[in-house]
Amino acid sequence: MIANQICQRFLAIAACFVLLWGCKSTTKEADIAEYEKGIRLPVNDTHLNHVKSYIENDPDPDYRHAPPSAQEAFRDIKFAVRIHWGLYSIHELNHESWKFLEFSNEKKQAYLDSYKDFNPVDFNADRWMEFFKRAGLRCFAFTTKHHDGFSMFDTREVVRQRVNYLAPGGPAIEACSTHFSVMESPFRRDIVKELCEAGRRAGMKIDLYFSHPDWYDADFRPYAYHPLQTEDIKNNPSDYGDPYIFQDNKNKIMVPEPSEEEKQRMISRHRNQLKELLTNYGPIDMICLDQYMGRNIWPELKQTIKELRKIQPNVMFRARGIGNYGDYYTPEGFVPESKENTAMPWMVIYPLASTFSYDKDGSNYKGTKWIVHNLVDAVSKGGNFMVGIGPDGRGNFHPKAVEQLDSTGVWLQTNGEGIFDTKAAEIWKEGDNIRYTQSKDGKHFYAFSLEWPGNQLELKNIEPEKGSKILLLGEQEPLEWTYENGSLIIRIPDAIAEKAAQQGLAWTFKIVGKQKK
Question: Hey, is 20 helix, strand or coil?
């Protein structure tokens, strides 16, 4: 009897545990499903709208995005730098390798052969990181391979076919066996490896840019603006990229359709190069993909992303080229007008000069104030800001880029508290010149004034806590304030105003209180 009672009680307890475990499991699965469902590009994303005829809105059920911890780490970056560097830097071309499409056959061949002259003797990864740290940057993105196909890393993947633009009778596809990488240049150093190692020593987040198309490899024809085009792309452009890919391509060369063997060779080389980046260079925070490759190989590209996810589950993929399989997206050349209507994290990418690569014209560099205002604007809306610069063919950044980013770092030494370790406030702006952020612990609000307010700042969206102190970051003495008729009036004495006004960039007020609903 007693044994039976004990047994029945044990079974009842076990049943409760099973029930509770099942509930927890169900709850966990529901949470994961809800999290996955929220990671979607904005419905007005231009690049996605070009290809939504074949890129499904909802990823396959067996796919998982980077986890919430990776998203949070991404949101914490706030300020980053994007470096485009390659053969185009020798030639000081604007717009990276895009100019290649406009070249004559003679110039195309000369450009591709210039890998024999790529020897950036001034490059020093640690000095780059010292510069980035001075500027207050938390992350760097680097081009491992742009559209022209030149790999800035020690790839083991081999190109089997390329174009001879000077072949008798006109450009022709020829057999080859080359890596077309920096290891075949006079420099013969793995630049990506050196940057990754230096970046980790400096505590920087690492973002490796990789272009899906490859204009050097003839197996990649005619995908994503490849110089080699085929008859099929005229009628079915979305099979190879976006709807405008054929009509927008300059100086195109018509060639036969790729065979199935060439197509599979392309898919394999593309996949294996990405695997190299996620296998040979330690933990990578982000992979910045670029260009859509078209309906024809979309299933294979999805499979590539799934295999890469298994190698590094925490890596954040840029959505460009993979739609909602991506983990973050990049408004390019603008800061969104308001908070984005999606849970997918975002990072503005914006060149400091006229291009993401080296610009020799110092007058094109937009200035420290431009950097600071865009950084504040992006962060106040819940995003990150990535400024684009590029070194020259020797590995040196333009003095204007160094000067303006160094000045940004000085500003951040005083005002960075309102940028880093913050989140977007419910009300992110007031008028044209005020932006708000909130500390992640919710204890403080930061009001950025993009123009000097004079001896008095009036804020209508913040109610300060009674008896609390309000500070102008960089100053030790609390400011006098009153709160009357729904307005916070902060008074700035002459002694502080005269000194602070000279800063000339943006001013940060730290406030304990709450925002109005």
Answer: helix
Do the beta carbons of residue 508 and residue 419 sit within 8 Å?
A: no
Distance CA 73, CA 285 (A): 9
The total of other beta-carbon atoms located within 10 Å of residue 342's CB is: 16
What does the pLDDT read at residue 247?
80
Rg (CA), the chain: 27
Q: Position 389: which residue type?
A: I
User: Rounded to whole angstroms, how far apart are CA atoms 265 and 284?
Assistant: 26
Confidence at residue 5, expressed as pLDDT on a 0 to 100 scale: 42
Distance CA 223, CA 510 (A): 52
Q: Which residue has the tokens 């010149």?
A: 433
246 falls in which pLDDT band (50, 70, 90)?
confident
CA distances from 176 to 165, 168, 180 (A): 14, 17, 10
Q: Report which residue type is found at 47.
A: H
Give the C-alpha separation, 507 to 517, whole Å: 25
The CA distance from 359 to 392, in Å, is 8
pLDDT tens column, 78-121 = 999 999 999 999 999 888 999 999 999 999 999 999 999 999 99
Q: What is the DSSP string of 299-360?
A: HHHHHHHHHHHHH-TTPEEBSTTTGGG-SBB--BSS--SS--SSSS-BEEEEESSSSSS---
Q: In this model, does residue 394 exceed pLDDT 50? A: yes
Instruction: State the DSSP H helix or E strand holding residue 505, giving kind and residue range, or none if neither.
Output: none
168-199 tens-digit pLDDT: 999 999 999 999 999 999 999 999 999 999 99
Global pTM value = 0.93
What is the distance of C-alpha 478 from the center of its chain?
38
Reduced to 3 states (helix: H, G, I; strand: E, B; else coil), residue 22 is: helix
H or E element, residue 103: none
User: What span, in angstroms and rounded, lies between the C-alpha atoms of 451 and 93?
Assistant: 36
**Residue 307 pLDDT exceeds 70:** yes
- Alpha-carbon torsion 11, 17, 18, 23, what sign? positive
Of 420, 414, 419, residue with least CA distance to 435: 419
Spell out a b/e string for 447-479, using b for 16 or more CB atoms within 10 Å of the CB, else e.
bbbbebbeeebebebbbbeeeeebbbbeeeeeb
Report residue 138 as tokens: 């938390």
- Give the pLDDT confidence score for residue 244 in this predicted structure: 85
Render pLDDT for 110-144 as a digit per residue (tens, 0 to 9): 999 999 999 999 999 999 999 999 999 999 999 99
Closest CA to 48 of 335, 242, 281: 242
